[in-house]
């Protein structure tokens, strides 16, 4: 009998089988658990966004653009670390369920059920966190620098054009799903964290668009603008892009489309075709 204990990371072919197994479990999860874990994931990603916004406040004047973006990306990793290590259901990462679907182990209906429930739960968690953050008045910290940064980020994201928003969404979720894919290889918590850091830092630093993160980034700006007009006026910012309609049409819809393409085609379908296609 072979009693050797293996401590090295899983190989890609083993990662593919783990992804398939996890995809089946996610698709079969009870509705209440799925929705509750999705709310947590939305809140976790929002916490990463809060961290990134706070760290970005004032850095444009103190640091070159690239360095400022690097810092924001590093701290934003908190969100996916909480999702993967803490356990939660994130829509963008769950695009990898396609690996189980392509092999016939998950039905189209079950996969779509997961995506819809998780997407709604993510919105509840992220938007709820935005409401709580507005109530905390954290946007007034640093002499208003945090709120000014939040408004600037929201206005910029709400002003995207449709096609670029799709492209930025594709690039983003290719990296997010690669981070989740790397976590499948892990044998320890530290392994998972190490695999997450660079892909997530890269997508934030490069300015790519994540639909769930934007469920916090843009609503917090809209809440500040709509419910604290005195603070908003004090920033002197031009916020013509920042409307609820622009949030949905210019950002959330095209970015979600891009995220689905990036995760399902550029990661899940590629690895399934390489490692699992001939086994099914």
In short, what is this structure?
This protein has about 280 residues and is mainly alpha-helical. It has 13 helices and no strands.
Topology:
Layout: H1 12-28, H2 31-56, H3 59-62, H4 65-76, H5 78-87, H6 98-102, H7 108-136, H8 145-158, H9 162-183, H10 189-206, H11 211-227, H12 229-235, H13 244-275
Helix pairs in contact: 2-4, 2-5, 2-7, 2-11, 4-10, 5-10, 7-11, 8-11, 9-10, 9-13, 11-13
CATH class: Mainly Alpha
Estimate the mean pLDDT confidence: 95
Instruction: Summarize the main sheet.
Output: none
* CATH homology superfamily name: Glycerol uptake facilitator protein
Write down how many β-strands occur, each being a DSSP E stretch of 2 or more residues: 0
How much of the polypeptide forms β-strand, as a percent range? under 5%
Elements, N to C (H/E):
HHHHHHHHHHHHH
Proper CATH architecture: Up-down Bundle
Low-confidence stretches: none
Task: Provide the gyration radius in Å.
Answer: 19 Å
CATH topology: Glycerol uptake facilitator protein
Number of helices: 13
Distance between the first and last residues' Cα: 30 Å
Determine the structural class based on helices, strands and strand pairing: mainly alpha
The overall number of domains is: 1
What is the oligomer described by this structure? single chain
Helix fraction, binned, reads over 70%
- Overall, the morphology is globular
């Amino acid at each position: 009998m072979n009693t050797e204990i293996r401590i090295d990371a899983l190989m890609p072919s083993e990662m593919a089988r783990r992804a398939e197994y996890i995809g089946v479990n996610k698709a079969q999860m009870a509705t209440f658990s799925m929705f509750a874990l999705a709310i947590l994931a939305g809140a976790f990603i929002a916490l990463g966004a809060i961290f990134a916004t706070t760290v970005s406040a004032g850095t444009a004047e103190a640091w070159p653009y690239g360095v400022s973006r690097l810092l924001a990306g590093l701290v934003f990793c908190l969100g996916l670390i909480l999702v993967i290590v803490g356990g939660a259901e994130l829509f963008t990462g769950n695009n990898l369920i396609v690996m189980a679907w392509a092999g016939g182990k998950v039905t189209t209906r079950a996969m779509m059920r997961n995506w819809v429930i998780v997407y709604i739960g993510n919105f509840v968690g992220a938007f709820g966190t935005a409401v709580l953050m507005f109530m905390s008045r954290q946007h007034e910290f640093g002499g208003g620098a945090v709120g000014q940064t939040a408004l600037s980020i929201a206005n910029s994201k709400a002003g995207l054009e449709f096609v670029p928003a799709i492209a930025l969404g594709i690039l983003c979720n290719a990296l997010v799903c690669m981070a989740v894919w790397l976590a499948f290889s892990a044998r320890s918590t530290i392994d998972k964290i190490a695999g997450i850091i660079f892909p997530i830092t890269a997508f934030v630093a490069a300015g790519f668009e994540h639909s769930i993160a934007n469920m916090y980034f843009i609503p917090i700006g809209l809440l500040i603008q709509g419910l604290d007009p005195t603070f908003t006026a004090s920033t002197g910012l031009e916020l013509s892009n920042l409307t609820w309609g622009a949030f949905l049409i210019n950002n959330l819809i095209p970015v979600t489309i891009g995220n689905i393409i990036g995760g399902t085609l550029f990661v899940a379908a590629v690895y399934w075709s390489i490692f699992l296609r001939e086994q099914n």
